[in-house]
C-alpha cells in the first residue's frame, strides 16, 4: 500500500491545531494542577467571537482573529476570578467537576446566542492549489505556519524570560517558588492570560479548518487530552509532540479504516502510550 501524501498533509494540519490546544491546556495544568474540562469550550467561544466580528460585524478576518484571541484571554481571567479562584484550595477533583459545569454553561450560552447550526468564516473564494499531488488551502498553510511560530514563541518564553522561568519553577514546586519570592498569584494571572489566548487561537484555527459549532471544542477534547497525556501531563514539549503524533495518526489511519472511526485512534494511542511510556514521551510528566 502506497501512503497518500494528502493524508500526511491533513495530519500535519490537524496535528498543528491539536498541538497548540494541548500546549495551552498543559501550561494551565502545570501551574494550577487541574485538568480544565472547559478548555474545549474556551476554544469554541474564541472561534465564535471571531466569526461574529468577521461575518456579522463585517470586519476583516485578521481583525476578527485578534478579537477572538483577546476575548478569550481576558475571558479566561474573568472566569477564574468568578469561579475557579474560589475552589483553588480544594482538591483537583473538585476543580475538575467545577470546570465541567463551566463547560456546560459556555456551550449552552453559545448555542442560545448563535444557535446550534454550523457557521463558516467570511473568506475570499479561492481555488485550492496543489503541489506534488497534495491539495491545500491558504488557511491550512496559515494554520501550520502560525502554529509553528506560536510554539517557537512559547518555547523561547519558557526558556528565556522571567515569566517563563517562573512558570517552570512553579510547575516543579509551587510552594518552593513562593518561598523563593515568586508572586504565584500574579503568575496565575499570566497563565490564564496566555492559556486563554492560546485556547482562542486554537479554536479559531479549528474553525478555519472545519466548521464552527457550539460543541466543536468538546469534540476536539478527546484528541487534545490524548496529546497531553501521551506527551506527559505538564510537559509542554511533550504535549506538542503528542499533538502532532495524534493528528498524523488520526488522518493517516483513514487509509485503512473508515473515516468515522479515526477519532478512536487517539484513544488507542493514549492507551498504548500509558502502557509503554506512563511518564510521557520525554519522561517529564508532572506528578
UniProtKB/TrEMBL annotation:
Domain of life: Archaea
Cellular component, GO annotation: plasma membrane
GO BP field: D-alanine transmembrane transport; L-alanine transport; L-isoleucine import across plasma membrane
Single GO term (MF): L-leucine transmembrane transporter activity
Name of one Pfam family that matches: BPD_transp_2
UniProt key word Transport: yes
Name by which UniProt lists this protein: Branched-chain amino acid ABC transporter permease
Transmembrane segment boundaries: 12-39, 59-79, 91-114, 134-158, 187-208, 214-233
Subcellular location field: Cell membrane
Family affiliation: Belongs to the binding-protein-dependent transport system permease family. LivHM subfamily.
Main location as per UniProt: membrane
Membrane topology: Multi-pass membrane protein
Native species: Haloplanus rallus
Keyword Cell membrane attached: yes
Keywords, in A-Z order: Amino-acid transport, Cell inner membrane, Cell membrane, Membrane, Transmembrane, Transmembrane helix, Transport
